Amino acid sequence: MSKIKMPAISIISIAVFLLWIKTYIVYKTSFDIQIDNWKQELILFINPLSFLLIVLGIGLFFKERTRNIYVLASSFLISVVLFANVVFYRFYNDYITLPVLFQTSNMSDLGSSVNELLRFSDLLYFTDVVLIVLIILLKPKFALYKKYTKIKRAAFFIAAAALAFFNIGLAESQWSDLLTRTFDREVLVKNIGTYNYHVYDLFLQTKSSAQRAMADGSELADIDNYIHAGYDLPNEHLFGAAKNKNVYLIAMESVQSFVVNQKVKDQEITPFLNDFIKESYYFDQFYHQTAQGKSSDSEFLIDTSLYPLDRGAVFFTHSGNQYEAMPEILRDHGYTTAAFHANNKSFWNRDIMYSALGYDRFYSLPSYEVNQDNSVGWGLKDIEFFEQSIEHIKEIPSPFLAKFITLTNHFPFELKESDQLIESYASGDSIVDNYFQTVRYTDEAVKTFVQKLKDEGLYEDSIIVLYGDHYGLSEHHNSTLSGFLGKEVTPLVNMELQRVPLVIHIPGQEGKTISSVAGQIDVKPTLLHLLGINTKNGFNFGSDLFSETRSQFTVLRDGSFISEKYVYTRNTCYDQTTGEQVGEIECSPFIEEAKRELEYSDSIINGDLLRFYPNKQK
Ligand code: GP9
Ligand code: MN
Question: Which pLDDT score, from 0 to 100, does residue 474 have?
């Protein structure tokens, strides 16, 4: 009987194994990654492996000396990347992204504190590299050079690819929209691993740099003409009506207009809003224009008056651009600008994008006391969020812009029983039933906030703007909704469901419901005019909602639109008033215009064209 011979282990396998285990240890010791179940732990454990196998596997094609050099060099480089993330994380509590590396202000912050960030024990992060050097020098028996046949090499890469698919499959089972809509670095690193995350980041960076490099600003002249031909003069009675007031901008997560003034079992879903709109300007035909970037897209629309992109989140892909955003403009007018959101600051890349948009301060998760009792679903409950935020507001010099992002009314609309303020709709569609409860809760939270402003003496000097960020109930729930609305959800009704509330409250002013077609893109010029700031030279696709010359035309991000007379959706043109389908010819001039508008906005973002804009609005 022949003896079973132990196969020699290749230096490649040793390097892969060491890097793999090291990466996992680093995950567990140097990053703060939240793991909720064993599957997530397994994903975390395997996620560095496919990348390491593929990169180090290239060494299989080399002869001994070259292979050794390749393995050593790649082990070293990968270790440097991992270690750089560790140091970066110590400072920023976040993973490195390429745009961040190129943002000099970030890097100088980091540079000045590098001494404090480094420890002698950090050398341990390179233990495996030292082991590889020893193996190369000492040539132990278990790690002798071996040649691999073509078939073995192919099998190796097939196995690595299979592992990558297994990893992604498992991750998608935990986070179903992982690769389509989440741009949360923590979720990415947790699921596809730190190395694959960097590859993805590099891909995004290369693509946007190429588009930016090709642009030279000549495209801007046409866009400039287009935008300025559409400029509407401000309403002379309202221009400056809120001059120097503190602005409270509140994003109501997933609140759609159809709940306003509606009841579930005879109980109002939004009792506070229903009263509040009576003493506010209330826009009942205001549409969200968001796409994959969800909440972040709504913030982008409101702050920049540009359209978000049709895929990906512009917050993530174009945070290095120059914008002339509302916070920045307000800052130039003496305002302090702050954003409040009790979530990870890197979620939707907000930390980076907020500084590009001109926010001075960002009160994110560490600024809040969050525990089991005061949180639900996605985190801190809205009432607690507002209560704690008020304390921070007191630190901010006036006049200020304070933006708040609520969270409780987020899919899947979880709520503790003690916070359920109305009877259940009990349709059997638990998402819809829960939605009414969480909307009711968020309504209560906004009420608490406005009351707090009054208690703290902040109310009189304020302008309060409430808006819904995007739909909360997707089309999967249309049959339940048709029961609630008492009508079939046709494509036209589905468009109506894209309406979200916009409420502009100026203490002391009378209320009025304004039923003109509007969108999130119009908020910036509207607000700036109320604050007495001219937008004539600005670069806004939206227009002042109070302007007397404004034409009604709102384009949604998928190219559908609503004009005074027509609604166009899913390649079909409808008459607004009759609800009847009409020939495409009626809609065709608007179809072209909608397309042009979206294309112009896209080229501003992709080419980073505002960097060429000479009359930056100040
Ligand atoms: C999370 C909150 C919700 O930070 O903004 O994001 P969404 O999923 O609605 O985009
Ligand atoms: Mn949202």
Answer: 87
Q: Which ligand has an atom closest to residue 343 CA?
A: 1
Q: Residue 111 — pLDDT band, cuts 50, 70, 90?
A: low
How many Å apart are CA 409 and CA 466, to the nearest integer? 14
Q: What is the pLDDT of residues 560-582, one digit of tens each?
A: 999 999 999 988 999 988 999 99
- How much is the pTM? 0.79
Does the C-beta of 323 come closer than 6 Å to ligand 1?
no
Pairing of strands 400-405, 246-252: parallel
Residues with CB under 5 A from ligand 2 (ion): 253, 294-295, 469
230: left (phi over 0), alpha (psi -120 to 50) or beta: alpha
The H-assigned helical ranges of 403-477 are 430-455
Question: What number of residues does the chain have?
Answer: 618
pLDDT at position 182, please? 43
Distance 343 CA to ligand 1 centre (A): 9
CB 210, CB 321: distance < 8 Å: no
Q: Which residues are annotated as a binding site for substrate?
A: 410
Which atom of ligand 1 sits closest to the CA of residue 347? 4
Of the listed ranges 25-34, 211-220, 376-385, the one predicted with least confidence: 211-220
d(CA 293, ligand 1 centre) in Å: 9
CA of 432 to the centre of ligand 2 (A): 16
Percent of the chain beyond pLDDT 90? 75
- The atom of ligand 1 lying closest to the CA of 254 is 9
- How does pLDDT run across 315-374, given as a tens digit for each residue? 988 998 999 999 999 999 999 999 999 998 988 889 999 999 999 999 999 999 999 999
295 is catalytic: yes
Distance of CA 62 to the CA centre of its chain: 44
Ligand 1 atom with the shortest distance to the CA of 350? 4
**d(C-alpha 424, C-alpha 433), whole Å:** 6
pLDDT at 188: 84
The beta strands (E) that lie in 184-264 are given as 246-252, 263-264
CA distance 389 to 387: 6
What domains are there in the chain, each with its CATH number? 11-212 (no CATH), 236-548 (3.40.720.10)
Measured from the alpha carbon of residue 255, the closest ligand is: 2
Given 10, 257, 295, 375, the catalytic residue: 295
CA distance 47 to 31: 15
- Check residue 115 and give its pLDDT: 72
Q: Is the CB of 343 under 6 A from ligand 1?
A: yes
Tens-place pLDDT, residues 263-287: 999 999 999 999 999 999 999 999 9
Structure tokens at 364: 């994110």
Nearest-Å Rg of the Cα atoms of the chain is 27
Residue 618: the pLDDT is 45
